[in-house]
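Translate sequence into structure tokens.
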Amino acid sequence: MRRPAGVVEALIAPKIHVPAVQPEWAGRPKLLAALNHAAAARLVTVIAPAGYGKSTLLALWHADPGRRRALAVLAVDTRDNDPVLLWSGILAALTAAAPGPQWATVARLLRQTNPDIDTAVLPAMCTALASQAATTGLCLALDDCHLLTEPACHRQLAALIAALPANCQLLVASRRNPPLRLARLRASGRLLEIGSGELRFGADDAAWLATTASAGTELPADTAHALIGASEGWPVAVHLAARAMRHHADTTTVLAQLTARHGHLDDYITEEILDGLSREQAVALARTTVLERLTTGLAHAVAGDDLPDLDARRPNGLLLVPLDTTGEWFRHHHLIQHALRRRLHRDEPHMLSSLHRRAAAWLRTQDRTEDAIEHSLTAGDTATAITSIACAYMAAINTGRRATVRAWLDRLGNDTVAASAPAAITAAWVAAVSGDRPAVEHWLRIAEHCGHQGPLPDGTASVLSAAALVRAVFGFDGLKPMTEAAQIAVEQETDPTSPWYAMARTALGCAHYLNDESPAAIEPLRRAAASHAATPMIRTLATGVLALAQHHLGQHEQAATTAAAAQELAEHFGLQHAPQANMAYIAQAAVAAHQGKRDRARALLEQILALRRRTPGLSPWPTLCALTQLAELQLDTGDHVGATACITEARALIDELPDPHNPPLILLDRLDRHPRRPQRATRQATTLTAQEHALLRLLPAPMTLRQIAAHRRVSLNTIKTQARAIYRKLGAANRAAAVTTARRHGLIP
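Result follows.
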């Protein structure tokens, strides 16, 4: 199975690494036993403030030979508020913990340009989990879950918990209770809760730690109790005090310092970590706390040459936490980072912006553009941030992470975006893939009036070209403006090594095909399909439309070969279920219909339309192609009820477009005049199952499908599947049409 690739994989890899157990860590046998025997728990929560050893407990459990299930661990960070990145991380963690082909469908769905998390990815994830549960079972652990603030992510996690198969569970480690419904799980005995009370150290833990830290010198029982009293069992404070005992023969001194600092443990932590360092080294170490992740090279680039030897201090397990198996990437322990960061803000507040700029500069040299963007934004370096965003936004959009790009733009603010043509073009693309047509035109007009001269950082030849590409690719304004915009983009994008060259020619070829000008479509589509610089989505789209143009010209053998090539591209790049790659399968349907394989053609077109209906706001043109082709097929087989529903839906799409010049209207008029054969809806209805009949009787009621699912005590996915079958058998485009058709034929009152 191919894992999330490129920049996504680089972002995820450190987050699924589980550090090796360190010799000085307390074993926590009681907690491990509780985890190992919580087989009935669907959810485990580990909730406590920083420094209570939540991450350490996960590492201990990961290494525990008594663990009965595979354990997948993902360290959540703020970027996971983009649902696509969150579920890509979850998939990577699951794949690392339990490799196998069961995750392939989830991976393919997540590689789409606009993944449908709720209705596609999550069901596929649950199916894969059920497959895994049949063998070893599995626990998915999300660490630092308090950093997850996006409501959509919380809703999706709640849905996962509700659908988890037996022998699978979710563990949430967080500083505060997650916004999940815990009462029902608690009442049913399917919730294991571990809090700060369970995580606190006792005297035995303190004695063991001190003995380990002091190389075997046993800590007296009264001193161990005094240590627990002074620290209140806070694991990180006990750990630091135990470390301090290495250097102090008199444990009373250590306890006195700890007691004196109680309530101000930041100072105590800072003093312990900085003990033995020069002032210059202490300053340099504090500077590195602007980094959430660091390497030795990055740390030196930010902090300077006075930085102490980080590798020499790793064995204590507190200063740095490894994020990979190669020893390259680390992070500060969160509590230590907080303490040292307070010192930095106190001593060098004027350096903060400069430190983030240094980090951004180093990260750009390592092609870690998205990390660099975070530091540029934090530094307030908007000019550099905009340039970096303009270079990175298309890769993020192509991997489904438009929420990430939107978050960058939100941090810039609308005024800053409006003052920059590259930023406004980025905003227009985000709006376009989100289906927000008014926002698309708003940002394009702003970009065109910014006065930007020359190429843009994303590689487009000009603002004129960039705006034309958005208008041409999505065609929200109608065919005539779409064609004019595509011609402008082709004139502007003349470099065959640029991906925008292929995109411009694909848009022009599509416009010619939709305008019933297939001869003019062939050459630009061939150029785009042959371009090695084209993105996978554009190559697949160009090849699919080329096959349709060849089919329209009567070149049926060539069309069959080209359509097969388009399908191969879609499958190679994992785009089978991507709405933006549907033209490849519309071409397959056209070839199948010509070859007399009408059932296959109809099945393909119905699948395409179901997919596009689940993703509102997409370009209307592939949907129109599928609707008109399906209507023709239905008329040829005598299903004029289904054809009428398709034609009605197609007209509704065209009515939303501002441009009245729409050649598809001519086709729809011709289809409307097509001779009608005897209706088949009643015969089709006889194939409805008992469950479908029961659902059909509920469709006129003022209930959502979710409410119907609850009423019938079945899953929402089951209801959706049955509803789609009803629509197909009745030749209806939607619920309302199904009710109308069913009433007309006496299937319901």
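Note: Residues 34 and 706 are 36 Å apart (CA to CA).
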